[in-house]
Each structure stands twice: as C-alpha cells, then as structure tokens.
Structure to design on (479 residues):
C-alpha cells in the first residue's frame, strides 16, 4: 500500500476524511498514488487559516511577495522533470507538452513576481479645491481557486501567482483526476517558505470539497475553470454569498480557412489546434470552417496528417497524441463520433485503439460534411474530434464562426489583410488568431472569452489585477 498523499492546511500535511486513487490513463495498471480527500471541516480549517494568515500577508510588502514567487518559480524549474512526468502520467498529455506546461508555470510565477513590485495606483486632483484623491489597489482576502484537469499546473499557476502577488491568501481545490501535480506544486510552495496559511491545498470531489470551498464565509472571491454547468452553479452560490467570481468555461472554437490560405500553414494550425493535447484544451479548434475552393485539398492533406499521428502512451518518446483523460471522457467522445455519423457526417478516425498498455486511447476524428446546426458543431466535445464545415464565402464563414453559444478563441488562415482585419473586428470571441492555432497563448496578456465562455474579469497578464484586487479611493483635505 503506497503512502497517502495529503492535503496542505495551515502549513501542515493533513490526512483528510477519505482516499481517492489516481491512475494513469495511458496504463490503468499504473496506480500513481492514493490521495487524501479533504473533509468539510478540513476545508473550513483551511479557509480559517487562510483568513488569519492573510492579515500579515496583505502588509508583507512587495519585496517579500516577489521573493516568494521567485523562489516558487525556481522550485518548479528545479523539479521540472518530476512535475512534468507526474503531469503526463496522470493527465495523459505527452511528456514534451507536459514539460512545456511546467516551464510555463514557472514563467507565470516569475511574471507575477515582477508584477508584485508594480502594483500601481492613481493620484488625481479633486474637482473640489484643496482636496487630493488617491486610488489604490488592495487585496481581497481569501480567494478560493477551483481548477480542472486539463492543465494541472499551468492553470493553478496562473491563479495562485496573481492571488499571492496582490496580497491574497489561497485555498486551491484541484481537479480530482489530477491531484498529483497540484500536490507537487503545494510541496514546492511549502519548500519555498510560504508563510503558514497563505497557501492551502484541499483535494477531493467538486461536489463535496469544491462546494464547501465555494460556500465558506471566509472566501471573498472564487476563480474557477471548468465546465459550464459547474460554472453556473458556482456563480449562483457566489452571488448568494456576495462573492466576487471569475469563470473560464467551454469553447467551440472556429478555425476559418479562406481560399487564399497558405495550405501548409492552414493544415499545421488545424492539426495542432484540433488534436494536440488530445484535443483536451478549452481553446481547441473543434470547428474547421473551410472555403469551398480550398476544401478538398485541405481535407485531403489534413486527413493524411491526422491518420499519421502516433497515438500512444504519454511517456513514450514517439507518441504525438496521448490518451483521453478518463473512461467517462472516452465514452462521451465515442458517443459524439456515433452522433456525427447519425447526423450525416462522413467520419474519418475516432475509433478506440487497443495498444500494448490498457489505456483510453482514441484515434483523432474528423467529421466531414458537417453543418453548423448539428449537435457535433454546437456542443463542446473536449476530445480529439473536429468538424469540417464547407462554406462559400467570407460572410458565410464569419456567420458560422459566430453561430455558437461560446466565444473563447477564433482563428482564420488567410493571406488577405482585408479578411484578417474584418475577422478580427467582427468575430465574437475573447481571443483571435490569424494564421496561428486557436490554442496556445502567451502568459503576459489577457486570457478569456466572450458569450458563454467566460464570466467576470480576464485572467493572466496585468488584467489579473482586476479580479484579485479591489480599489480604494481616498480624499484628503490638507486644510
Ligand atoms: P470537467 O468536466 O472539466 O471535470 P468540472 O466543471 O466538473 O469540469 O470540474 C472543474 C472543477 O470544478 C474540478 O476541480 C471539480 O472538482 C470542480 N467542481 C465540480 N463540481 C463542483 C461544485 N458543485 N462545486 C465546486 N466545484 C466543483
């Protein structure tokens, strides 16, 4: 029996009220570990400890905060192989992607170490004589962070780092499918000398541990990334508790291929955007909207490259696409493959693969001849499946691109300045990509969507200050 990996509460490692198994989706015989499930009391204790610790952290000053964030970044870099291997083992993305994600997490901590030194305010003259006005940013207090399994270190990093940089304390609830990476991050944060209670980790199911965090009276703000139904539930609970809330949810991201696109660029951007990380990215291109005059050449070349993708164990050096994360997700993906055929698409790929280890392997799928109103073009699948919709001109392409409840990332491949300009202006999404994949973003600029994809202020870059701080306006009359 392996040792139980524990929660981190008030600066100590806590047992919890139960245990959950963490298994490798590339190889179900590989039991990664047993992880403690926090009890509702553990969550309450974590939030109380965070509230207590935040009072000193709020006034610790920018140098102390910057130094801690730098030490965390160094800790991640030092343990890069260990973190990335854990990430690939429990989430299933290939090791190269897991290493890139781990590096990204360190970069995010470094970025916010700098931001901790640049928390600026405004000094403005009053409209009244003799009065000076100062507007400053203050921390909120305890923030609850609830994260999904698909970026098990990058998403916790881009929530934890700004929360700490701006003087908040944190209770992190990672996804139940990927507790291992979050526990390693907690270990790194503890080893970096984080003051007791400033960072806490509570693991376990969303419905018990997550819900307890959402409802805890010490928590002043909630940042969530995950599915739409959970986001909606959290927003309702947050409203009842008058908590600030930030939600990043689904996508049904379009990639438009115009008739003048560079075919190589278009195929490469679509292959990457639709299938890398097994299509398990909220910014994945799940709708390829292709001009009729380039459609057949694009589909032929993309199909050839998709069929050649090597699906395999996340840790095997020649794998290009790892497994689907879980049995439930695989069953859902396979049901969408059947649905695509039932809705009238020509399906290429998409079948479950039996490999030498028992895992959730699936061949990437293209749904050809799709139409915008089909369910496979409207519902987020969150797997290696992309619909191809043929259109006859730019206006139709734009109309289809916008024909969705979501609005996270939208791409266009074209050599026309006019198409690119029009698309950037008229597409309904928080992020627009011209000749680059819809997935894959920088960390020092805002991230987020429009319509049903996001709610509340943007994440990442300097935009994060909007969520993690509150402004205070003071008026001074010198007499
Ligand atoms: P996914 O489909 O990606 O698993 P979820 O929205 O179910 O998306 O999960 C995202 C995160 O939200 C996870 O950490 C999960 O445990 C948590 N979660 C799920 N349900 C709730 C809930 N009712 N309250 C709070 N957190 C929840």
């Amino acid at each position: 029996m392996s040792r139980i990996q524990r929660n981190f509460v008030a600066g100590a490692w806590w047992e919890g009220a139960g245990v959950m198994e963490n298994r490798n989706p590339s190889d179900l015989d590989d039991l990664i570990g047993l992880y403690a499930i926090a009890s509702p009391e553990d969550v309450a204790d974590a939030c109380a400890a965070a509230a207590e610790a935040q009072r000193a952290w709020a006034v610790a000053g920018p140098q102390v905060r910057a130094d801690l964030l730098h030490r965390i970044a160094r800790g991640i870099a030092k343990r890069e192989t260990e973190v990335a291997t854990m990430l690939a083992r429990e989430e299933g993305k290939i090791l190269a992607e897991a290493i890139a994600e781990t590096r990204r997490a360190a970069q995010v901590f470094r970025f916010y170490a700098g931001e901790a030194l640049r928390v600026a305010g405004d000094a403005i003259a009053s409209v009244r004589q003799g009065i000076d006005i100062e507007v400053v940013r203050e921390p909120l207090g305890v923030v609850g962070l609830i994260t999904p399994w698909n970026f098990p270190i990058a998403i916790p990093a881009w929530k934890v780092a700004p929360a700490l940089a701006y003087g908040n304390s944190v209770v992190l609830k990672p996804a139940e499918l990927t507790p291992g990476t979050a526990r390693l991050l907690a270990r790194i944060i503890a080893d970096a000398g984080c003051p007791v209670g400033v960072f806490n980790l509570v693991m376990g199911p969303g419905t018990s541990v997550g819900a307890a965090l959402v409802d805890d009276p010490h928590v002043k703000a909630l940042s969530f990334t995950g599915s739409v139904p959970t986001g909606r539930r959290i927003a309702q609970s947050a409203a009842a508790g008058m908590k600030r809330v930030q939600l990043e949810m689904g996508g049904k991201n379009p990639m438009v291929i115009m008739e003048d696109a560079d075919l190589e660029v278009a195929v490469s951007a679509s292959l990457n955007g639709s299938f890398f990380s097994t299509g398990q990215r909220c910014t994945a291109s799940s709708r390829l909207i292709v001009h009729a005059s380039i459609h057949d050449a694009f589909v032929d070349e993309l199909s050839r490259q998709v069929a050649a993708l090597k699906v395999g164990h996340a840790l095997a050096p020649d794998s290009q696409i790892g497994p689907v994360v879980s049995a439930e997700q695989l069953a859902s993906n396979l049901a969408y493959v059947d649905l695509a055929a039932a809705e009238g698409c020509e399906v290429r790929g998409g079948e479950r693969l039996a490999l030498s280890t028992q895992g959730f392997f699936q061949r990437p799928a293209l749904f050809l001849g799709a139409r915008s109103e089909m369910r496979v073009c409207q519902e987020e699948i969150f797997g290696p499946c992309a619909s191809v919709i043929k259109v006859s001109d730019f206006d139709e392409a734009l109309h289809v691109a916008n024909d969705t409840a979501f609005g996270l990332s939208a791409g266009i491949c074209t050599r026309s300045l006019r198409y690119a300009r029009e698309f950037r202006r008229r597409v309904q999404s928080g992020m627009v990509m011209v000749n680059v994949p819809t997935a894959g973003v920088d960390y020092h600029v805002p991230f987020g969507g429009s319509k049903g994809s996001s709610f509340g202020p943007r994440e990442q870059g300097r935009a994060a200050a909007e969520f993690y701080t509150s402004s205070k306006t003071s008026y001074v009359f010198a007499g």
Notes: The domain at 4-249+453-477 is CATH 3.40.605.10 (Aldehyde Dehydrogenase; Chain A, domain 1).
